[in-house]
Specification:
Number of helices: 4
Structural class: alpha+beta
Radius of gyration: 32 Å
Helix content: 40-55%
Strand content: 15-25%
Strand order of the largest sheet: 1-2-3
């Protein structure tokens, strides 16, 4: 095969592939499918296109004086790959610089020990999430827990 045909094939490949990837993102936005898409498809294809683009840039710049128009088109064909690679790198560095999100947890707002009788003591604990009263739990005496039924706590 002729070297020009191979170079043109890879130039078209490197031009079309990042545009196709960028315009056809995955439709499922859940974490698992997105992780699989990114690590099994997006990053390997982008890595392959970046390597081919680097080779095309090297070949295009090395022989630029002899074939200016052909090498200009070859270098221009690497622009989508270079642009997408730069966008991914910027996004990775941007994410690393962000503060870690810390989810708010339930806060124990109150705790009351209620002695119902000699055999039954309840511990009532109130929890809230942000401004919402979330739940109240109760615990009977641990040593006498087996003697009580749920009907006694209603």
């Amino acid at each position: 095969m002729n070297k020009r045909i191979i170079k043109c094939f890879f130039a078209v490949f490197v031009f079309i592939l990042p545009i196709y990837i960028y315009l056809n993102p995955p439709t499922d936005s859940d974490g698992g499918p997105m992780l699989a898409y990114n690590f099994l498809f997006f990053y390997p294809i982008l890595f392959l296109a970046t390597i081919i683009s680097i080779i095309l840039i090297y070949v295009g710049l090395k022989d630029f004086r002899n074939h200016k128009i052909e090498n200009t088109l070859t270098l221009a064909s690497t622009l989508p790959t270079v642009f997408l690679t730069v966008l991914v790198a910027i996004n990775i560095f941007r994410i690393q610089g962000e503060e870690q999100f810390e989810e708010e947890k339930d806060k124990r707002t109150s705790s009351v020990i209620v002695k119902v009788n000699d055999n039954l003591t309840l511990t009532l604990e109130g929890y809230s999430y942000k401004e919402i009263r979330k739940k109240v739990t109760f615990t009977p005496n641990k040593e006498k827990r087996n003697y009580f039924t749920s009907n006694q706590f209603v």
